[in-house]
């Protein structure tokens, strides 16, 4: 059996520490929480599909037109030969393959975790008009061109036109805050009030999802931006406290060597 670390395929950026994707951050958190050795291999956006086909990674989804859609994260485990795509499937694989490490999806919570993640995505949907243009600016040139072209085709508008300005910004940003407020209310239900994580005092994959999206915003907006500082004040500082609680699971940040 190989003693080489698990490979995590991730998308590079110009942001400090390089890692920015909320989906790959879920897996980074999981690796560090479980104490598993891994190394990052950086893959630019246009090269993802060819990589996945080469190493035998399954597509993340099948588009309506029948074409496979490949995305990261993908891991390759030299100990077992497994190649796994999609952050949720990766988490389940790590729990099953390394049972002596802390579980990121506690027993019996698989469906509840996935349901929470879907509800969270729906609640925080208004963030998209801000984060898409912001992320385009931190990508390296090869990925930036691909990201802008494909996202503009998907949203049917220029990314630069998505960012709300003037009075529209004030209204749109309040909608983002309200979306996070909905999540805050869920987490403040009486049985969970005052506790830091989705499952109370127990860290789980759902927390890694929220933490990954917060890092997404921190990288996209910039740590010194008014938007990021504002988010960190929302809801009694809940999101600042969460990302601080998860900091020990961020692991070493790795800038990409050119």
TrEMBL record:
Residues 11-102 form the GST N-terminal domain. SUPFAM superfamilies: GST C-terminal domain-like, Thioredoxin-like. It comes from the Eukaryota. This is GST N-terminal domain-containing protein. It comes from Mycena venus. The lineage of its organism: Eukaryota, Fungi, Dikarya, Basidiomycota, Agaricomycotina.
